[in-house]
Specification:
This protein has 290 residues and is α/β, with parallel strands linked by helices. It has a single domain (2-289), classed as 3-Layer(aba) Sandwich (Rossmann fold), CATH 3.40.50. It contains ten helices and eight strands. The protein has an eight-stranded mixed β-sheet with strand order 1-2-4-3-5-6-7-8, sandwiched between helices. A hairpin with a 5-residue loop joins β1 and β2. α2 packs across α3 and α5 (160-171) crosses α6 (182-195). The two termini are 32 Å apart.
């Protein structure tokens, strides 16, 4: 089911649900420059088949949500946290199991701190601390630095094939060794292009946002938290995932072998689905699963 949520400043957020509305909700928050399309259909269907209502949405400036002029995002990171609340309000979901990836993981951390009553469990994927975190964490790998330093000219945004090529090449350096499935990424990129009201804004504006104030994630004691982090993440090397799990009292860390800075690839979906179902189960359901 596709619907729209209205944010406090009037922005429209495009939302889709997959599954039974009577099931516990999992709210998926995507990373920078990602629309809901990067949460792949098959992964969402697998989770829904295990008794979860999947809620995914287009962040501002992506997909069919409100877009702003490229280079001039008219909102802040705090607004994107409020957007997640607006999505839950629109669907009349009191509490959701929140899953955030990369920038979405930062949004999810702020959501859990600022709106603790709306978050049943927290899952943080391919991200780093939105709090103070320890000093001395490693930066991006030299290979990723080199790839990002090789600036490519912008495509003609009206040329579908050229933009798809641009998106594919932008994603390539973030994948783990052997995990860049070009046909799969190309298909997602095509869907992204076809659903984007302003593809130029989608690929530019999130990188210009101010990160805002740190989230006091060390206060999340008692909130079941799962950290999923790839051992080959070139943007946030594995030490970021370990530090994040250490910072949130009681958090559980699972390192994904060979996975980069990406949604875990299909070879990991059995593990990811099983772990998320376990993590998001209630007390009685956890016992049944065990």
């Amino acid at each position: 089911m596709m619907t729209a949520a209205r944010a406090g400043d009037g922005a429209q957020i495009c939302v889709e649900t997959i599954g039974d509305r009577a099931d516990p909700a999992i709210l998926l928050i995507a990373g920078a420059a990602w629309s809901m399309d990067w949460w792949e259909d098959e992964l969402c269907r697998r989770l829904a088949a295990r008794g979860r209502l999947i809620v995914r949405y287009d962040n501002r400036d992506t997909g069919r949500s409100t877009a702003y002029p490229p280079g001039s995002p008219g909102y802040t990171g705090a607004d994107m946290v409020a957007d997640a609340v607006a999505v839950l309000d629109e669907l009349r979901i009191d509490r959701a199991h929140v899953v955030g990836l990369s920038m979405g993981g930062g949004i999810a951390q702020h959501l859990a701190v600022d709106h603790r009553d709306r978050v049943a469990t927290l899952t943080l994927m391919s991200t780093t601390s939105a709090g103070h975190g320890p000093a001395g964490l490693p930066g991006m790998t030299e290979q990723l630095k080199a790839a990002l330093a090789d600036e490519r000219p912008e495509p003609d945004w009206r040329d579908r094939d050229a933009v798809i090529d641009y998106i594919v090449e932008a994603e390539r350096p973030f994948a783990g060794p052997g995990d860049f499935d070009e046909p799969r990424i190309r298909a997602i990129a095509g869907r992204v292009y076809d659903r984007s009201d302003d593809i130029a804004a989608s690929l530019a504006n999130h990188w210009l946002l101010d990160g805002g104030q740190p989230a006091h994630v060390n206060e999340l004691r008692g909130l079941p938290t799962l950290v999923l982090h790839g051992t080959a993440d070139p943007l946030f090397p594995p030490a970021h995932g370990r530090a994040l799990a250490d910072e949130i009292p009681g958090a559980r860390l699972i390192e994904l072998d060979g996975v980069g800075h990406q949604l875990p690839p299909p070879r990991m979906w059995d593990l990811v689905v099983g772990t998320l179902i376990e993590h998001t189960a209630g007390t009685d359901e956890r016992s049944a699963e065990e």
